Amino acid sequence: MTHPRLLGYRPGGRSCRSYGYPSLTVVRPWVVYEDRTVATVVQTYVQQPIIEQTVIEQPVVQESVPDFLRSEQPPGEPIGPGAVTLLPPPEPVSPQDAQDTLRRGDAAFAVGDYAEARRHYIQAQLEGVYAGEATLAYGLARFAEGQYAVSAMALRRGLTAVPDAIDYPLDIALLYGDPEPLQRHLDTLAEQLTLRPDDTQAWFVLGYVRFGQGDPLGAVDAFERCIALDPQDALALLLRDAAMAATDLQRQGPTNQGAAPSPDVGTPAMGLSLQAATPELT
C-alpha cells in the first residue's frame, strides 16, 4: 500500500528527510512521509536432478561356423571357435566327370526333357571344365522351351567364352536326335517372328540354330535381319561372316562344317571342344 506523499505541514513544523528506513517513518506526529516498501529479492537455487546414464554392456557375440563346415567333435569336447575345423575345399572336377555331366544333359535333351537337360547343363557350367560349351547347350534348351530372349543371352555368353563356336556351332541335329521336335520348335520360332518381326534376339537364335542345323544360307538370312535391326551387334556380324564362309564351302563340295567331327564323341558340346582343339579333323 502506498501512502500519499507529504500531506501537509503544521504550523511550527519543519521538514525532515527520511533516512532510508524501509517502513513508515514518523518524525513528528504531524509529518507523514511515504511508506517505502522494500521488495526483497530472494535468489533461490534449485538443485537440478542428476541424470544417471546407465551403460548396458552388450554381450560378446562369438563368431560361429555353420554346421555344414564343422567337423565332428569327440564326445564331451566343447564346440567353439577354437574347436572348429573347416572342411577342405571340394576337389576339382575332372574332365571325364564334366564330360559325363554334359552327356547326361544331352540324353535328357534327346528325349524332350528340357528342364532336366538344363539342370545338367547348369551343373556343367558350375563345374567349369566345359562351361562355355555347357552354356551354349543351355541356350539351345531355352530355345526348345520357347524362351528366345534367355536363349539368345545364353548363346552370346557361350560364344564369348568359346570363340571357336562361331565357326564350329553345336550340331543341333545330333543334339535333338529326332528331327520332328526340331522342326516343330523352328515353326514356333517362325510364328513368333511373324508376330514380332523386330525381335532382334529371336532372329539371333534362329540364325544360330540354322547354322548348327547345317543350313548356313538360312543362317545368313537370319543374321542379316538381326544386323538390320542392330548394326552394332558384333556377334551377329561374326556369325554371319562364318555362315557365309560355310555357304561357299558347301557350294564347293560336301563338308561337315558346323557338325561334330565324329559321332563317337558322344555329345555335341564335347564335339565342339574337340573340333576347336583339333580343326584338322574337319
Q: Average pLDDT value?
A: 75
Overall shape: it is elongated
Supply the number of helical segments: 10
Most strands sheet: none
What name does CATH use for the topology of the largest domain?
A: Serine Threonine Protein Phosphatase 5, Tetratricopeptide repeat
How much of the residues is beta strand, in percent? under 5%
CA distance, first residue to last residue: 127 Å
Helicity level, as a percent range? 40-55%
- Kindly report the name of the CATH homologous superfamily of the largest domain: Tetratricopeptide repeat domain
Kindly give the count of domains. Answer: 2
CATH architecture group name of the largest domain: Alpha Horseshoe
Reading off the top of the CATH hierarchy, the class of the largest domain is best stated as Mainly Alpha
- Taking all Cα atoms into account, the compactness measure Rg is 48 Å
Helix-strand string:
HHHHHHHHHH
Strands, count: 0
Which parts are unreliable, with pLDDT below 50 for 5 consecutive residues or more? 1-35, 255-266, 273-282
- The class by helix and strand makeup works out as mainly alpha
List keywords for this structure.
disordered N terminus, disordered C terminus, mainly alpha, 282 residues, 10 helices, Serine Threonine Protein Phosphatase 5, Tetratricopeptide repeat
Would you kindly provide a written description of the structure presented here, covering whatever features stand out?
This protein has 282 residues and is mainly α. It folds into 2 domains: 1-37, no CATH class; 95-255, Tetratricopeptide repeat domain (Serine Threonine Protein Phosphatase 5, Tetratricopeptide repeat, Alpha Horseshoe). It is 49% helix and 0% strand. It is built from 10 helices and no strands. The longest helix has 19 residues, at 234-252. The radius of gyration is 48 Å and the shape is elongated. The N and C termini lie far apart (127 Å). The model is unreliable at 1-35, 255-266 and 273-282 (pLDDT under 50).
